[in-house]
Amino acid sequence: MFLRRPTTNADPSDTRATMVVDQLSDPPGYTLQKLLGRGGMGEVYQARQRTTGQNVAIKFAIPEKSHLKRFWREFRHLQRLKHPNIVQVYAYNENFARPYFVMELLPGITLAQLAEQAPHKRLELAWVKSIFAQLAEALAYIHSEGLVHRDLKPANLMLLNSAQPAELNLKLMDFGVILPSESQRITVNPHARMGSIQYMAPEQFFTSSVTPSADLYAFGLMLYEALTGQRPFPGTESQTLIQQHTQPPPTFQRWNVTVSADLEKLVMQLLSQEPRHRPEITTVLNYFHAFSPEATPPLTLTSSLACGRCRQPQLLGAFACEECGTRLWPPLPKESLTPTPPPAGLTVTLNQPCLPSLERPQLVYLLTHWVPPPQQERLPLNFALILDRSESMKGAPLDSLKGAVNTILDQLHPNDVISIIVFSDWTKTLIKSQLTQTNQEKFKREVAKITAEGKTSLAPALREGLQQLAKYLTSERASRIVVLTDGVADDEAQASQQADAAGDKGIPIIGLGLGKHWKEDFLSDLSNRSKRSQFWMQAEEVHFIRSPEKAIAVFKEAYRSVQIVGRSAALTLLPTAGVAIRRIWEVAPRLRDLRLAETEGKPVKLAIGDLGIQGVTHLIELSVAPHLSELACLLRLQANCLLPSGAAYSEQAEALSDPTQTPIQNTRWDQKVVAVLEQVRAYVLQLQARESLEEGARELSSSQLRAAAQILHAQGQSELAYQTLHEAERVARTGQMSSEGRKTISTTSRTTRLV
Length: 755
Prior knowledge:
Number of helices: 19
Helix content: 25-40%
C-alpha cells in the first residue's frame, strides 16, 4: 500500500492562499512557497532554505501576547524532545514581523484522513499495530520527560509515505498545549481545559489535574475508532460527557467487529472512567511490541473531507462553508421549555431508578432540592440601594432605573428597612435608613428627583451604604447591598476595600451591570469580597441588564434573591459503606463547583448560609463500588436551618435505589438530572472557552462555545444559544469575544432552569 497525500489545507492555486503568502515577507534565508494550514496558534507554510535547497515547514505565530507565550513554550518543548516519532524543530526567530520557528516538512497523510478513506473507517490490524506502537513509543518518551501532550487526536498524527505498514513512519505534531504532568506542576488554572473536546478524558472537564493518564484515554479513544470505525460515545458534547462518566464503552460485538480478547480488554482499560484504572504507557508499549496481526489487503485512499455541497475543505467546527455558504450547524428550534417549580421539602432524584450489576465501580448522579417550608415568613430586610447617577445614565437608562426602583418599593413589607444612595463623583443619601411602613409614595417622590451628571466614584457610596445598614444590622434582619452601575469606577481599589468591610460584617453585595461598559470582573470581585467571611457560603451574585427596558425584570430577580426564610442553613450527606462522594455542584440559586475532596463512607456537611425562598439545589456525583447493585439506600441527607422565629427546623431524605437487576442499557435516565448535567456542562464550556481564548487557542475556544450553544438550544434557551453561537463565530473570525456577549453568557448561564 502506498499512502498518497491528499490536497493540502490551502491549495497553492487558491488565490486566498497566495494572497496570504504575498502579505508575508520571506524570513531571512528562506523563501515561502505555499500555505499548508492554519489554526488557533498560527499558520504553517512550506518554505525552501536558500543555501541548501531543503524544503522545510515554518510556523508563524499569531501576533498577540497570549499566543506568543504558548508559541514559545511549544518551541521550547519541541527543541527539548528528540525522538524519531516527534516532529523536529530547527530554529526560532522572534526578531521578525511575526515570530516563527522552522521545523521538518512532513509529506504524508494524517490518521484522520487515513480513517476517513478506509472501508467503514476501520483500519486493518497491520496498520493499527504500526501506527499505535509508534505512538506508544512517542508517549512513553514524552511522559518520561515529565510532560503531558494534552491534545492527542487523529489530526495530530502524521503518517509519512510508505508502501508497507512495517515501514510506516509516524510523527506526532502540535505541542501547543503541552504541560508538565501533575507531579511536576500543580498550579494549573482550574478553568483552563486545553485539548480537543472529543478526545479529552472525563476528568479534564471538571478538574485541573494534568496527568499522563489523560493522554492514555485519548490513545484508547483513537484505538477504539481505528478498530471499529465508530466513536464509543457518539452524540452531542453533553451526551458524550454523560456517557463517559456513567457507562462503559460498547463492546466490539456491538459494531460486528472481532478482535482478540486481550486487545479489546486493553482498549476498555484505556477508556476507564477513573484515571487510576488505566494501564501505564509501558504496559501499552509492551503489548504492541508483542502484537502480531495477520497480513491484510491494502487500503485505497482518495481525498480529504470537504463540504457536502461544493466539496471545498472545511475547518473543524465551521458554522458555514466559506465557499458556498452552506449551513453546517443545525437550526435552533423556536419552541422553549417551561420551567416547572420543584415540590416543597427536601427531595432527592437519582439519574436511574436502579443500579445495574457491574464488576467495576459505577458513577451515580443525585439531584437534591431543598425548598423552604410552605407559607413560611421571611426575614425582614435591611436593604441599601446604591445607584449610579453619572453622566452616562442620562435618558432611557435613568428613566428605567427609576421605574425599577419604584417596582421594588411597591413590594417591600411595612417592617422592611430601606436606604437609597446615589453616586457620581459625589455621593448623596437620597433616603436614610428607615422602616418602609406607609412611606412608599414619599420615597418615590425622592427617586423622581434623581438627575444624571458627573463621573463614577463608587467607594464613598459603599461606605455610606454600610453606615446606613449599621443602624438596623441584627441577626433578625437580612442585610444586603445592591449596587447598580453602567460604567467603570475611577476608584476600584478603594471600592474593593469597602467590599472587604462589608464581608467582615456579613453583608453580601449584589451587583447589577447596565449596558455594555461596566466591568464584569470588578463587580464579581466586589460580590466575592463581600461573601468571603464565615457568615456567607454562597457564590458571588452579578446580574446583567442588557438594555434599559430589562431593568425592572432584573431588579425583581435580585429582590427575589434576598427573600430569606432560613439562617445558618446546612445540608449533611451521609453515604453508605462502599459509596464515595466524588463531586458536588451547587446548581441553584447560582451555579458553582464546590470542589470538595473525594470522600468514601464519610459524612459531608455543606454550609449554605442564608436560605432563600427559591431554595437550593445540588448535583452530587457518587462512585459506587462493584457488586453493590442491591443497595436500597445510597445516601442519607439531613437539612437544618433556623427559621425567622428562631426555631430550629430539620428535614431528612434518602437516595433509594430499586434493587431490581435491570441492564444499564434498558434503564431510562431521569430527564431532570440530564437537563441539569447539560446545564452544568454548558456553563463549564463557556468558562473553558474564555480561558482557551486567553491562552491563544482560538479554534478550541470557538469549538467550546459551539458545544455550549448546542446544549442551550436543546434545552429551549434559544436567545442565549444564538448569542453563544454568535460569539463562537466572532471568536473564530477575530479571536475575541464581544463585551456584551461575554457578560450575557457568563451571567445568564449561571442561572439554571429546572425543567
